[in-house]
Amino acid sequence: MVLLGKLAQPVCGLSKVPPPGACRRFWGWLNAVFNKVDYDRIQAVGPDRAASEWLLRCGALVRYQGYQKWQQDYNGLPTGPLGKYKIEAINATDSCIMYRGFDYLDGLEHVTEIKLQKCIYIQDECLQRLSETKNLQKSLLQLQIISCGNVTDKGILALHKLTNLEYLYLSDLPGIREKETTVRILQQALPNLELELDLE
């Protein structure tokens, strides 16, 4: 009976509630692991496949050039010859993509639209990195940034380097404090940009 009691003690100890913030730290660590760039993988399978794996691992969706269906299942990623599937659109709604993984975007040459919605790790540095990505400067036509609480005027102004951007939708961005000034500067830099705002 005494032996059974001693064996049960460690099991009972597992039922303790973790300290406040422990779960948040664990998920933050796990998300950082998901965003770690594997340069060998990019070389082995090509930039579009490697970026697809990264984006789906982080909870985002991708759509390939010539296809209407959004790819959301990591295990269902299409196979085929290297370079057959080119990412055309990214929907990062509720995903954990973060700055650390943005090197995956460097080799993407066909991305025309990106949606960043409720992305808790997206911040000004991410938007600056996005706008400095040479291939995206050429290909990106539509960008939506919605409910990303860490984005400020500085991040939006950094988008001026996306010279081919045709449409920008900004909504629910409490970090934008100088709306009129930011819009004016951005429109001066990108006169052909259609800018739609739902801010307040």
Please provide a written account of the structure.
It is a single chain. The chain contains 8 helices and 7 strands, in the order ααααββββααβαβαβ. The protein is of the alpha/beta class and 200 residues long. The chain has a 7-stranded mixed sheet, with helices on one face. α3 crosses α4.
Overall outline: globular
Strand content: 15-25%
What is the averaged pLDDT score? 88
Strand order of the largest sheet: 2-1-3-4-5-6-7
Poorly predicted ranges (pLDDT <50, ≥5 residues)?
A: 1-14
Computed over alpha carbons, the radius of gyration is 21 Å
Measured between the Cα atoms of the first and last residue, the distance is 66 Å
Secondary-structure-based class equals alpha/beta
- Total number of helical segments? 8
Largest sheet: 7 strands, mixed
Outline:
Helices cover 36% and strands 16% of the residues.
What structural keywords apply?
200 residues, alpha/beta, seven-stranded mixed beta sheet, 8 helices, 16% strand, globular, disordered N terminus
What secondary-structure arrangement, pairings included, does this model have?
Elements lengths: L1 H12 L8 H13 L4 H7 L1 H11 L3 E4 L5 E2 L15 E5 L21 E5 L6 H8 L2 H6 L2 E5 L6 H5 L9 E5 L7 H11 L4 E5 L2
Parallel strand pairs: 3-4, 4-5, 5-6, 6-7
Antiparallel strand pairs: 1-2, 1-3
